[in-house]
Amino acid sequence: MKKIIASAMLVLSFAGSAFATGTVMSSNGVAASGTSIFGGIDDTTAASAVNPLIKLSNKVTAVVNWTTAGTPATSPGYAIGTKHNGGTKLFGTSNTSTSIFWKLDAAGQDITGAKFGSDATNNNFSAAASWTAY
Known about the structure:
This protein has helices spanning 2-9, 43-47, 113-116, and strands at 17-20, 23-24, 29-31, 36-40, 54-55, 60-66, 78-84, 89-94, 101-104, 132-133. It has one domain (2-133). By secondary structure, it is of the alpha+beta class. The longest helix has 8 residues, at 2-9. The relative contact order is 0.20. The protein has three helices and ten strands, in the order H-E-E-E-E-H-E-E-E-E-E-H-E.
């Protein structure tokens, strides 16, 4: 289930902009549990989208980091992380990786930008930061 959630977040790689419940989702910002995330090639398209790219489950929060250089057509970098509030693992991946990474975290806590890291590449998941690849 957790791998599916992390994989589903990869859909964001096809969007130039991501919106969480009608507001712009900033890089390293947290999407609250139960949030619908809309996307599009630009802010206007994302704001008018009818169908969400992702609908987070209750008690699942997510963080997305992306590079600001380039355009969606040139595939800017991104890193995505998720965590279930009752779970004890953070999950993440990036567009520079074929692995899903995890690290331990206390149960009952949402993911935060500080816990996830701010890099938009595979460097976000270093062993020094206690990340392990599946």
